[in-house]
Design brief:
The protein has 258 residues and is α/β, with parallel strands linked by helices. It is built from twelve helices and ten strands. The strands form two sheets. Strands 1-2-3-5-7-10 form a six-stranded mixed sheet, sandwiched between helices. Strands 4-6-8-9 form a four-stranded mixed sheet. The structure holds octanoyl-coenzyme A. The site of octanoyl-coenzyme A has 22 residues, from α2 and β6.
Length: 258
């Protein structure tokens, strides 16, 4: 499918989705968020895709929701349109892993979009922030909840109340990103991580993603029970037999997603 606000390249089981509104530092407008939802749904259905990398440009992952598009809206407009609501839910409904590869600004809705992915690898020039407070609003697509879970109350509260940005070093130290890489290596590193995931048993990958996400949705006791049942269920797969046999035979496993 052809998109106007993003590009999609599929190679070796990895879909690389690049946000592409350079004139607005990839600000999220209704068209972009809708196209992103469609691109992710397509990737989820596509047998040639096992992992997704979502990125922007070297200057901006996304500088937030599109302020020009939002500025004149009323409460009734955003409430009845459910601005971004359903399309953002399509991102977290994606079953295949999504890696956010963040260079430059990830602000407001851009930071929230990165946090809605499964993990974030960032470039040395990355800057994260929730500056909505400077516009007289607050985060609206998960920022107050997700950032707080990533970095804790104190740092999250400071960022939401003052609008200050966090650089890559602080983002790694605080647990917002899994790692920081040189800016020129961002895409190769993120794609290499995606390829590594695509070589695993895709049944185990799905189960791992579901189980980690449970940590955010339920109690520790329920989450551990969910994990235990998923772990046990994986013993019904051919891939478990193959993975363990390959280890014992000192060879690489040949997973068949069965
Ligand atoms: N929306 C629209 N256009 C933008 C945005 C944006 N968020 N950010 C940048 N642009 C545009 C600028 O207007 C400019 O366009 P033009 O040349 O036509 O004026 C172009 O991108 C380049 O930007 P700058 O000239 O400002 O570039 P700088 O390098 O000087 O500054 C910054 C870069 C610091 C990133 C600066 O652009 C900036 O502060 N941007 C706004 C950041 C921001 O406040 N983001 C939060 C937006 S609100 C939000 O995300 C709410 C999310 C929840 C929505 C939920 C709905 C229910």
């Amino acid at each position: 499918m052809a998109y106007q606000t993003l590009t999609v390249e599929i190679d070796d089981y990895v879909a690389l989705i690049r946000l592409n509104r350079p004139e607005a530092l990839n600000a999220l407008n209704a068209q972009l968020v809708s196209e992103l939802g469609n691109a992710l749904a397509d990737a989820d259905q596509n047998e040639k895709v096992r992992c997704i990398v979502l990125t922007g440009s070297e200057k901006a992952f996304a500088a937030g929701a599109d302020i020009k598009e939002m500025a004149a809206k009323s409460y009734v407009d955003v409430y009845t349109e459910d601005l971004f609501g359903a399309d953002i839910d399509r991102i977290t409904a994606t079953r295949k892993p999504i890696i956010a590869a963040v260079a430059g600004y990830a602000l407001g809705g851009g930071c929230e979009l990165a946090m809605a992915c499964d993990f974030i690898i960032c470039a040395e020039n990355a800057k994260f922030g929730q500056p909505e407070i400077n516009l007289g609003v607050i985060a609206g697509i998960g920022g107050t909840q997700r950032l707080t879970r990533f970095v804790g109350k104190s740092k999250s509260m400071e960022m939401h109340l003052t609008g200050r940005f966090m650089d890559a070093t602080e983002a790694e130290r605080s647990g917002l990103v899994s790692r920081v890489v040189p800016t020129t290596k961002l895409i190769p590193e993120a794609v290499a991580a995606a390829k590594k995931i695509s070589e695993k048993s895709q049944i185990a990958v799905l189960a791992a993603k579901e189980a980690v996400n449970r940590a955010y949705e339920t109690t520790l006791r329920e989450g551990i029970l969910f994990e235990r049942r998923s772990f046990q269920a994986l013993f019904s797969t051919e891939d478990q037999k193959e993975g363990m046999a390959a280890f014992l035979e000192k060879r690489e496993p040949q997973f068949r997603d069965r």
